[in-house]
Amino acid sequence: MATKSPKTPEEEPDRFLKIMQFQSWFFVGILLIDVLIIAIRGLTLGNGLFGGLTDESLLIGLFCMIGTGLSFGLSYQIQATPARRKNLFQTYYISIALVGIIAIFVLAAYQW
Length: 112
What we know:
Elements: H1 11-45, H2 55-80, H3 85-111
Helix pairs in contact: 1-2, 2-3
């Protein structure tokens, strides 16, 4: 079954906006799973609810919070100012690329 192309040019950015919001909720889900793993690890070790907190857990949480903030913030700005959509989408792609590059360098420095 062929996919339908958007009828107006305004419908295409709405699809990207939904992708951005889905990615934001995805980051929130990863963060909640990380907090759940921390709590389970802490309770099984007998160190209390957050006794299983490690550096890796903090880095995952920080990365997810930064990604969530960028995605939710830019999606709100795109909804609030439709005239600047193209510029804000480019800003979104650049910010996600930079966060990914920083995450790769942090992981490489941590492994080294």
